[in-house]
Amino acid sequence: MEYYCCNFYERRGNVKEDIEKMKQMEKHQVDNKDQKMTTNMGLKISNTDDSLKAGLRGPTLLEDFHFREKITHFDHERIPERVVHARGFGAHGFFQVYESMTEYTKAKFLQDPNIKTPVFVRFSTVVGSRGSADTVRDVRGFATKFYTEEGNFDIVGNNIPVFFIQDAIKFPDVIHAVKPEPNNEIPQATSAHDTFWDFVVSTPETAHMVMWLMSDRAIPRSFRMMEGFGVNTFRFVNAQGKSRFVKFHWKPLLGVHSLLRDEAQKLCGKDPDFHRRDLWNAIEQGQYPEYEFGVQMIEEDQEFNFDFDILDPTKLWPEEMVPVKIIGKMTLNRNVDNFFAETEQVAFCPANIVPGIDFSNDPLLQGRLFSYEDTQLTRLGGPNFHEIPINRPIVPIHNNQRDGMHRMTINPGVTSYFPNTLAQNTPMPATEEEGGFVHYTEKIDGRKIRGRSESFRDFYSQATMFWNSMSIPEKKHIVDAFHYEVGSVKDKNIKQRVVDMFGNVAPDLAEQVAHRIGVNAPANTDENKVGAVSPALSQENTIKTAMTRKVAIFIENGFCTKSVMQMMDALNSAGVSSELISSHLGMVTGKDGNQLEATKDFTTADAVFYDAVYIPGGRDSIAELSKHFCTRNFINEAFHHAKSIAASDEGADFLDSTDVSSLSPSQSKIEGELETQLGVVKVKNTQDMTKFFEEFIKLISMDRHWGRNC
Ligand code: HDE
């Protein structure tokens, strides 16, 4: 087969890393530019617009091989979507360890800080189908494939550190319950319906994960601003054969931030691709998302030192108890060239490990080890999907597996068995010293039994710890989410049982929800319940930065050019991007006669697309803006979504005609010409705007201003 190889590095000017995986993928690129069109057999085509007919107005002939090939290919160009995590978005990048981890693991990619390991990451939602919206309330998948020199290692994680169930055998049950109901396939991409909550109230082990699902974690602001967790307990094994239990973490350098429910729901309609667009644009603009890699480790002899079972996937290891050791960083720096070939065909599997990493007996993990390859056999049409470029390891594959659907490799020779003499017993197994994988020789002594360990029985303590660890706004959002989700359930008995069940987690939560959804307050709650606190669980305690946030700037003819230009420069220097919005697209003339281009207008833009708003001065500009209902609406929405707002000169007066005027004057802080009030900064009649810009950027870095009671 002949491939046309275009120059990867020229086309992707922003990528410097000369990494093995890119070189391998490059071999499969085909560039059609400047080429003549051919059939799949390489025959040049002279006309692709008209089928071959018996007479110009006659029937199409079966003889038309071009028509048949074109239509047949089209008819078959969909594959089954993933049974869960169907909607996803991927990107390439690389990983580097900060310091050698030799003491803990012999995994080669964790030994040398100079080694850059290529990675491919796919983020996803769980419940919705491929065409569903990005910003629904759901768990996010965070799956990473490391193409190491010892073969592929996958961390198939989520953005929530625990799971709904303790045993993989219940996975079909929880997924059937949360997916659209089977009689009418309604509702799409949401847990706000009877079958999900029916399952929850019948399965108390779901309590902890449901708390996370009802929290802000389930509506992230961006894939770039969420944590990733391996969830299951794995092992690190060093060269001496010493094993430790380990949990994997990804920590985004932009911190962990979320949307508001109202915002997320509006985005589902206004931009269903919000998260993919955000990731794609960030990478194209060179704002490469970065995540630090962390591990929590527990010594084998400490296994039973905790008040939870470290193999129970509905429990996390509190970071204050078992610190997360940050050991490296992943950078995503290249978008895919073809969504289907890469993102849709990538196949992750938690069973893909390398020497130095091993499994634990976590019963959820044990089931996962089977399920992924099994489902991929159907989805990718047979046992050769490891040959698809995105799935191929960067090291060669040598074994006696042969044939099957879509086999690409041509294995010459007569031997496809082992042992053999005709090929001198090759390919032959490697010794441990040669890099052969040897399973950790764990001692197992027990009876064959279908059951659950007593140590898995505490369903509520960590759910309570999660609630206790939330800030006041985060708690408010959880109550709001329960209100919406359980309020959408039709069966009153299920509603009541949700309230009763979560009374065991947090009586104050359950009471507020009961009141809002019209059922009785929970029976038999322990009002004096205290429980632990883990500050690491609150998003409020993660990194805050204005970097990569997006500001809307309003302009109409007569706007103050100087303040707009200076604001854009100041934002740009702080890594914040901005867009000019007017009542129409195209050039807008400032009061000094200079023109700037509005790349958005009030029809193509919306407050929910931005993190902050700036209304510059200019008498005529503000007079024009104030004629439009949608401008006030835009500001009001940004205000009620607790976003930062800046206004200068006449722009500051304009704010008085919006909901911003509802802020109490007692909350104002005045410094010189600068007035700041719960995330709103105004300035008037000043020559030096520097302080104003600095204050606005500081407000943006605070993310939201919850004092407005949002
Ligand atoms: Fe998955 N999961 N899962 N899962 N999972 C799949 O594999 C499964 C679980 C996760 O971007 C499927 O190729 C079982 C936990 C991600 O391609 C399937 C159980 C976690 C992705 C499957 C779990 C995950 C999947 C469907 C319970 C977080 C998307 C398509 C025991 C640690 C990967 C596929 C991608 C996908 C099975 C639970 C993460 C059916 C049986 C816990 C990120 O094999």
UniProtKB/TrEMBL annotation:
Coiled coil: none
One function term, GO molecular function aspect: heme binding
Catalytic activity: 2 H2O2 = O2 + 2 H2O
PROSITE patterns xref list: CATALASE_1 (PS00437), CATALASE_2 (PS00438), CATALASE_3 (PS51402)
Active site: 85, 158
CDD domains, A to Z: catalase_clade_2 (cd08155), GATase1_catalase (cd03132)
UniProt enzyme class: oxidoreductase
InterPro entries tied to this protein: Catalase, Catalase_AS, Catalase_clade2, Catalase_clade2_helical, Catalase_core, Catalase_haem_BS, Catalase_immune_responsive, Catalase_large_C
EC number, as in UniProt: 1.11.1.6
CC annotations in GO: cytosol
Amino-acid positions noted as binding heme in the UniProt annotation, renumbered to this chain: 82, 122, 171, 368, 372, 379
Gene Ontology terms: biological process: hydrogen peroxide catabolic process; response to oxidative stress
Required cofactor names: heme
Catalase core domain ranges (all copies): 38-426
Keywords from the UniProt entry: Heme, Hydrogen peroxide, Iron, Metal-binding, Oxidoreductase, Peroxidase
Pfam families: Catalase, Catalase-rel, Catalase_C
SUPFAM superfamilies attached to this UniProt entry: Class I glutamine amidotransferase-like, Heme-dependent catalase-like
PANTHER family given in the database record: CATALASE, CATALASE-B
Entry's family note: Belongs to the catalase family. HPII subfamily.
Role of this protein: Decomposes hydrogen peroxide into water and oxygen; serves to protect cells from the toxic effects of hydrogen peroxide.
Name of this chain's protein: Catalase
Protein species of origin: Acidilutibacter cellobiosedens
